[in-house]
Amino acid sequence: MGGVLWQLRCLSIVFYRCKLRENGARKMAGGDEGFSVVLEVWVVLRREEVRGRESGGGVVYTRVGTTKMKKRRLGLWLKSMRSMGESEVVLLGWPLSMFGARVKIALAEKGVKYEYKEEVFLHNKSPLLLKCNPIHKKIPVLIHKGRSVCESKIIVEYIDESWKGESPLLPSDPYLRSQARFWADYIDKVIYTVAMKFNSGPKGEEMEKARHECLGYLNVLEGELGDKPYFLGNAFGYVDIALMSYYNHFFTYESLGGFSLKIDSPKLFAWATRCMKRESVSKSLPDPQKIYDYTIVYRKNIGVED
Ligand SMILES: N[C@@H](CCC(=O)N[C@@H](CS)C(=O)NCC(=O)O)C(=O)O
């Protein structure tokens, strides 16, 4: 199998118990004396990678293990199967993305283990990303049991519904849910738009306009937060994730726009400081200095920075 890029989509394991030949009797892991285990593993491969192999009704299988296995080999198989189970959740991301950070926070809040696959260059997208998000071709993408979910807010909702537990991210009440969705949508509409102005706007009048606009939006968000510890009340949740994903980018926006979250939006600053105490948040956000450095290089490349 070495080197073959095969994708595990379906794994069917068939255990047969059969009588051992007299000379082969062994006690198998979890099995009985006098019985052997025949393990057959069939793996569905990506169609393009298995051209020429045996095909059955459009699904292509290959047999990767068979015969009466000895205890040691069986142990290895079981171990590798366990680790496959762990990466049944895969996140395609990009290190500086605010949208990817949302998914990381949500998965961390739910305690979900996942495999992280990083897109290195967003202008040269991997075949996996193109396959998993053929419409927008953007990260983040969550792959869960081989099926992909796209768009960060939709992914966060999917995570909340798939890993229901003690820490729901959205309220159960339909009205409160609608309000949570409204504010998360507002955040993307206004903060993302103004962020793009900081990232690529020329200095001077344009930056001043962006600063003014941004402070206006932050003021609205402060009004919504009020005196609550988190946007949805006493518990950290969906709206906090939506806005906190931008938090480490604010170092760049403040530097370029000439404002200070701490001074100009003290309530939001206190809320952000509270959120940052959560490991799920602090460990998921990209380094502010790296975001700044990347933005400056980007600005130079597009000719708005000397
Ligand atoms: N609305 C999307 C936005 C995702 C997005 O813009 N991702 C960026 C990285 S931060 C991307 O993949 N850009 C590549 C491109 O635009 O081609 C979401 O919420 O997931």
UniProtKB/TrEMBL annotation:
<dbReference type="InterPro" id="IPR036249">
    <property type="entry name" value="Thioredoxin-like_sf"/>
</dbReference>
<dbReference type="Pfam" id="PF02798">
    <property type="entry name" value="GST_N"/>
</dbReference>
<dbReference type="InterPro" id="IPR040079">
    <property type="entry name" value="Glutathione_S-Trfase"/>
</dbReference>
<dbReference type="GO" id="GO:0006749">
    <property type="term" value="P:glutathione metabolic process"/>
</dbReference>
<dbReference type="Pfam" id="PF00043">
    <property type="entry name" value="GST_C"/>
</dbReference>
<dbReference type="InterPro" id="IPR004045">
    <property type="entry name" value="Glutathione_S-Trfase_N"/>
</dbReference>
<dbReference type="GO" id="GO:0004364">
    <property type="term" value="F:glutathione transferase activity"/>
</dbReference>
<comment type="similarity">
    <text>Belongs to the GST superfamily.</text>
</comment>
<feature type="domain" description="GST C-terminal">
    <location>
        <begin position="173"/>
        <end position="294"/>
    </location>
</feature>
<dbReference type="InterPro" id="IPR004046">
    <property type="entry name" value="GST_C"/>
</dbReference>
<protein>
    <recommendedName>
        <fullName>glutathione transferase</fullName>
        <ecNumber>2.5.1.18</ecNumber>
    </recommendedName>
</protein>
<dbReference type="InterPro" id="IPR045073">
    <property type="entry name" value="Omega/Tau-like"/>
</dbReference>
<dbReference type="InterPro" id="IPR036282">
    <property type="entry name" value="Glutathione-S-Trfase_C_sf"/>
</dbReference>
<feature type="domain" description="GST N-terminal">
    <location>
        <begin position="87"/>
        <end position="167"/>
    </location>
</feature>
<dbReference type="InterPro" id="IPR045074">
    <property type="entry name" value="GST_C_Tau"/>
</dbReference>
<keyword id="KW-0808">Transferase</keyword>
<dbReference type="GO" id="GO:0005737">
    <property type="term" value="C:cytoplasm"/>
</dbReference>
<dbReference type="InterPro" id="IPR010987">
    <property type="entry name" value="Glutathione-S-Trfase_C-like"/>
</dbReference>
